[in-house]
Amino acid sequence: MNKLPIYLYSNLFEVLLDLDQNRGIYNIMYQRKLRIQKGFKDSIQFQFKNSDQKPIHLTTATNYWFDMIDSLGRELVLTKPLTILDDTVVYAVSTDQPATGNTLQFGDLTGISIGQTVSGFGIPVNTIVVGASSGTVTLNNATTYPVTSATSVTFNTLALRGLATVVFNPDDTINLTAASYTCLVKQDNGDGTFSPAYSNTYYGITGEVEVLENGFPIGFPVQTVSQQQLERGQEYNRDPNNMGYIFFSGWLRPYPSAMTISTPQTASFSLDGFAGTITVQGTLDNNPSGAGTANAQAFTITSYTSTLPTTGNIQLSWSTNLTAVRFVVMPNADGFGTNYYPTGNPIGSNTNKFPNGFIDKIQYFS
Length: 366
What we know:
By secondary structure, the chain is mostly beta strands. It has 2 helices and 23 strands. The longest helix has 6 residues, at 227-232.
């Protein structure tokens, strides 16, 4: 039995702000191409670092944007705001700590939650928040020195430090061509300008994102039969009970996925004042003859009859095992027993070839 493992991965794109002005300390050699699936809800994570490869704190007061640009036409095809996941907050201690201990006082506890890592003067490593209530933060470790008021203390979740994400909804990518695009992250300066964020320490600002359609159902092309094609397939029906011209589309092959009885097939007919009969015929022959009424290989699948002139679209559907299908059209006769004037009636009048209308177009979906 074939087994196909399916993984849920987070796309991770490293962004170097290089705020310390150090050049060449670390070079990203293999910044991987990002891949997103067309028509799906997808996401990319961004890890903001400095040139020492250390995650840096982000603040929700700063806005970042992700742009996708057509690699050929240099056209902006998509822009999305980044959502900051970094929960870093920095607060000043509001009251002097009288002695070393496990509690600190703050005037604001917004953004502080149990489990966050704590860092600052007098706070040992591996210290986390175990309680936060009524202006008091309780730590799992005692301070190494009494912490005085106005001392800044940083709270954050280490796994989220410098982390942001962008989410693509299905309608963001549904109309994009499956191809490679240039991508970049930019910082909104709040004054109508943007500053670049860098994808490597050589001050390159762009990366590459590929839109794939592996899981997007494209479908098969629709096979179309025009009025002119039907008219070229004319034969004269010599049945004394139903004489007149009859029109054949020629044999059309369904796509392999539709060659079973479990897959429905459909044909759409665009009627132009048509009165008469449309018949859908099938065959199981691998090389069916193109002959018309004399073709014994054909069998009737379904049909449609209009006694009054009808304009508009109709659909016929079927689930039948076959190797090819064709469409047969026979208009009703006029008061003179004629259903088709090859040269037009009056002579040269193309619009009067069909006294009881005809078919503008047939579209076959398989």
